[in-house]
Amino acid sequence: MAAYWNRILLLGSLILPVCFIAVNGNISQNCTDFQSTSWRNILQRLDLNVRFMLLTRRNPDCAQIINGSNNDIENSNFNRSLPTKLIMHGYRITGSKPSWVDTLAKELISAMDVNIVIVDWLIGATALYPNAVQNSAKLGLKVSTLIASLVSQGSREDSFHLIGISLGAHVAGFVGRMFNGRLGRITGLDPAGPKFSKASVDERLDPGDALFVEAIHSDSDNFGISRPVGHIDFYLNGGKDQPGCRPTSISSVYKFVICDHMRAVHLYISSIKKHCPLVAFPCQTYEDFTNGQCVNCHNHSLQRCPRIGLLERGGLSADVQPKEVKVFLMTSSNSPFCAKHFLVEIFLKQPETRAQRVEIKFLSSNYTMMSNLQLTTPNKQSSERTMKKVISHDASFGNINAVTIKLLSSWHWKRSEIQIGKLRIRELPLNDSARPPRCINDIVIDNSLFYHQFGDCL
Ligand SMILES: *[C@@H]1O[C@H](CO)[C@@H](O)[C@H](O)[C@H]1NC(C)=O
Ligand SMILES: *[C@@H]1O[C@H](CO)[C@@H](O)[C@H](O)[C@H]1NC(C)=O
Ligand SMILES: *[C@@H]1O[C@H](CO)[C@@H](O)[C@H](O)[C@H]1NC(C)=O
Ligand SMILES: *[C@@H]1O[C@H](CO)[C@@H](O)[C@H](O)[C@H]1NC(C)=O
Ligand SMILES: *[C@@H]1O[C@H](CO)[C@@H](O)[C@H](O)[C@H]1NC(C)=O
Ligand SMILES: *[C@@H]1O[C@H](CO)[C@@H](O)[C@H](O)[C@H]1NC(C)=O
Ligand SMILES: CC(=O)N[C@H]1CO[C@H](CO)[C@@H](O)[C@@H]1O
To answer: I want to staple 209 with a disulfide (CB 3.0 to 4.6 A). Which of 176, 391, 394, 412 is the partner?
Structure first.
């Protein structure tokens, strides 16, 4: 929490002087956009001023305001026989319109014929985080009222899909609870952690809130919640720190601070475009996953590895009833973020006398480094002679072709050579892998850097 508030203060001091820019719609066509947040609006805050903006394939760029009344829905492009997706943003420190919202809506509309309702609660979501948390309950009531009204006009409860970002994810949970979990789906994109980590199921998103609840965790050590809150919980790269989220200059501090948190949103948007599958592996912990304990998609009660995206129930069959199942995947640092996962197995010729650090770089055919692995050999006490690790590389790259391998210096022992009988890589999931394993046999590692090419496994 301390770190969290430090970040907020840092953000505030950086951003406040330039924030609160009014956002205006295209007046001539009566399109609507997010409301403008001004100090006066926020301080007077008599009402949340929630606004529902409808986008459909008939008006993909020009939102209509709807209030849910019969008359109003009749006169809008809302089509009650189509599914409806609601997008709910979270806490907005600057009061600005969320930059990703248009892209998310656009991708959803091009992927499916749907009604998109963007929930604008900027005025209630801005300024102090605890106020925004308080307001989120009121917001939940307003959203529930809208949905109830749409249902009374013929929309099916299970045709609603709520997509909530950060604080918006818990609002989605609140709304879902008002319908006793009968709404179709809730997707929580890095559901907020602060003030919710220890909350009861009534106060946060949980699997009881919809027929299918999924969450994507990308910043669970800061702004996001770390505990599982859905039927399926996707943890990106362990759920805490994301590749490519490092500050590169002072001017990018703001982006850096929210980079991990926003990765869930950008990755979800990318998954809607269906560039490449974002498949995740059920496992107890990320450590077990990286240690090669969860390499199979059929050997689990889920029977299949779920996918991030619009696939119904994440691609899981209707007869599995998961609850708070953690699933893990590694990603690359850029859109579309997909990575290929490999199990690396190293079979030592004999037990080592002591643990030593080894670095293996995996190279493509043009010597580009695809992945880098550091590991410690087992020592004599453990009778173990096999080392297992899961690595990944950007799925748009070619194949792993070779490795360089060397001992890392250790300060306390003289380094001694290591004899490896076989180094094998296999693409995950093992059970479905169409590609045959690749091997390097008989490697001696000492102080020099060695280059070896993969061949077929004998
Ligand atoms: C309003 O939007 C339309 C299409 O999006 C655009 O062609 C037009 O120039 C806009 N008008 C104004 C006044 O911005
Ligand atoms: C836009 O709004 C004005 C005033 O509310 C109304 O008179 C006009 O007909 C609207 N135009 C369209 C295209 O809906
Ligand atoms: C909803 O909007 C319609 C016009 O579209 C208006 O006649 C009606 O009074 C509004 N209802 C509420 C509750 O604001
Ligand atoms: C509403 O959606 C249904 C199903 O796609 C379609 O058949 C119908 O024509 C749509 N209605 C309108 C008014 O667009
Ligand atoms: C499936 O899991 C069992 C134990 O849970 C294990 O013995 C077996 O080797 C696994 N099968 C595969 C293909 O991983
Ligand atoms: C080398 O291969 C990588 C991955 O396959 C590719 O991204 C990169 O552009 C290639 N570089 C050159 C110089 O061909
Ligand atoms: C490719 C392959 O071997 N697939 C198998 C994975 O495991 C399931 C269940 O054990 C089998 O049905 C598949 O044939």
So the answer is: 176
Closest CA to 362 of 331, 393, 389: 393
Phi-psi region of 66 (alpha: psi -120 to 50; beta: other; left: phi over 0): beta
Model confidence pLDDT, tens digit, residues 160-184? 999 999 999 999 999 999 999 999 9
Between the CA of 393 and the centroid of ligand 5 the distance, in Å, is 25
pLDDT in tens, 10-51: 444 434 333 233 334 433 457 888 887 666 666 665 568 899
Residue with token string 């926020």: 42
- Which of 82, 109, 150, 155 should be mutated for ligand 4, with most atoms under 8 A from CB? 82
Tell whether 14 is covered by a domain: no
Report the alpha-carbon distance of residue 319 to residue 304 in Å, rounded: 12
Tell me the pTM: 0.87
What sections of 112-166 are H helices per DSSP? Answer: 122-125, 129-152
Distance 58 CA to ligand 1 centre (A): 16
* Contact between 317 and 302 (Cβ < 8 Å): no
The atom number, within ligand 4, closest to the CA of 82 reads 2
Say whether both 183 and 95 belong to one domain: yes
Which H/E stretch holds residue 252?
none
In this structure, the residue with its CA closest to atom 9 of ligand 5 is 299
Residues in contact with ligand 7 (CB, 6 Å cut-off): 298, 431-432
pLDDT in tens, 1-12: 445 544 544 444
Give the C-alpha separation, 322 to 232, whole Å: 7
**Do the Cβ atoms of 353 and 380 come closer than 8 Å?**
yes
Q: For position 258, which CATH number holds?
A: 3.40.50.1820
- What is the C-alpha separation between 276 and 273, in angstroms, rounded? 8
Q: Catalytic residue among 76, 120, 170, 190, which? A: 190
Largest Cα span, the chain:
82
Task: Tell me how far apart the alpha carbons of residues 169 and 149 are, in angstroms, rounded to a whole number.
Answer: 21
Q: Does residue 13 sit within a domain?
A: no
